[in-house]
Prior knowledge:
- It is a single chain.
- This protein is of the alpha+beta class.
- The chain folds into four domains: 1-8 and 128-250, no CATH class; 18-126, no CATH class; 262-383, no CATH class; 385-579, no CATH class.
- Helices cover 31% and strands 30% of the residues.
- The protein is elongated, with a radius of gyration of 29 Å.
- It starts with 7 loop residues before the first strand and ends with a strand.
Amino acid sequence: xxxxxxxxxxxxxxxxxxxxxxxxxxxxxxxxxxxxxxxxxxxxxxxxxxxxxxxxxxxxxxxxxxxxxxxxxxxxxxxxxxxxxxxxxxxxxxxxxxxxxxxxxxxxxxxxxxxxxxxxxxxxxxxxxxxxxxxxxxxxxxxxxxxxxxxxxxxxxxxxxxxxxxxxxxxxxxxxxxxxxxxxxxxxxxxxxxxxxxxxxxxxxxxxxxxxxxxxxxxxxxxxxxxxxxxxxxxxxxxxxxxxxxxxxxxxxxxxxxxxxxxxxxxxxxxxxxxxxxxxxxxxxxxxxxxxxxxxxxxxxxxxxxxxxxxxxxxxxxxxxxxxxxxxxxxxxxxxxxxxxxxxxxxxxxxxxxxxxxxxxxxxxxxxxxxxxxxxxxxxxxxxxxxxxxxxxxxxxxxxxxxxxxxxxxxxxxxxxxxxxxxxxxxxxxxxxxxxxxxxxxxxxxxxxxxxxxxxxxxxxxxxxxxxxxxxxxxxxxxxxxxxxxxxxxxxxxxxxxxxxxxxxxxxxxxxxxxxxxxxxxxxxxxxxxxxxxxxxxxxxxxxxxxxxxxxxxxxxxxxxxxxxxxxxxxxxxxxxxxx
Length: 580
């Protein structure tokens, strides 16, 4: 039998936040070498059992080392033992055991950890998640082979993305995602560094994986080389960034860690409360729900505080209306969590609707000490300044390339006193189109207004203003295009037929089903329309402060390219003049 290879196979390297650990322990005087014991003790107390126990500790290469093992792991019978029994094949019982180890390495004022098995949950709350990104931005090639991302909002889980060929992740693709892991190749010049060679030897290629840890794929042959690797990553994380740094997208929109950023989050919530309830400054904030289409097209909205109903309406309440009904209530910041908003869609089912606190419904952005923060579905995100600049530049390009003049369709000016519902009714009547506002099929509003000319059909989605509400309209356009395009590719456009039936039932059209379907056989243009006093252009974009609006519009353009099945399908943006 061949001897087992020495060393550890691709150990994940974690850097722990010493400041955060000491804050958790409420003591700034604890030596770095003593922190691992405190971390593991706290974990065991929380589990109410001795789960991880110290194997031993020692000193090596000027570092203090501690190794812990999960003492609760037990061996288990392999499923092979009984799997073949029906065939009369007897397999002697085979047993396996998963071992979980944690190695803590205290290097001067820094604390590192590496693990064997699934053991990082012991210190998960103290991981410096920015460290792997900082290293990778300096040592990884711009192209990535594999990625993992989590959506900013919604119920979808993290998604693995595999690329057929190595490619670059663009900041535009990051508009809807927080990248949580990337996999790529180490740069050639890094492979040739003498310090790196002393750890891994001469390599022609090497993969690097980044998540909450950083991991280089080869085996680390000795403890001496592992410590050398930790020292090298620490020095590399502070080196100058390469000119073609493309992994910065990992830092573009960063979720604020509820534990590590607890103080900042509390400050932001206090400023938000003061902004809404004291200053009555509602700019760049709006109410919506992660189920945006369902919420936007409900029949009933109810705002409550405890058992008291504060507002019940058949139209979607604005943030201003909700703030107004809260006038006179004491509490300030607690109101964000004490007030609830529910919506009901009885047409779709007795229990269909949305529910959540006021805080969970707030979507928008704030400036704090010169930094931009997003609040989306109850979570705070920090936005990189370079990211804002890049998104703004992309927005200007998208608007120029997709501009559609409202006058070509005969759409009227939008009178200030008109709500979206009233404008849609007027527009449809003037252009002999169909008003589809608040008519849903499969929880999707296919259009606010449907218009057609000899050039094709225009599927228009409209919003008042160019602000955080662009998040809603972007979602509506994408959902609408996905449903319609998929339906048209099927043998029978059943969803369009059902939508036609709903329109007829609501008195919105007298067209026959055949004529309605024939409209969609034309060239199809999906339109994001916004009503503002002045048009958003490259020169005027700074007058519209919402970064979310810029982000959503660019994101829509990027997402739509994945939906459009042919040259007959396109996206346009349209300005509708808001008049006094």
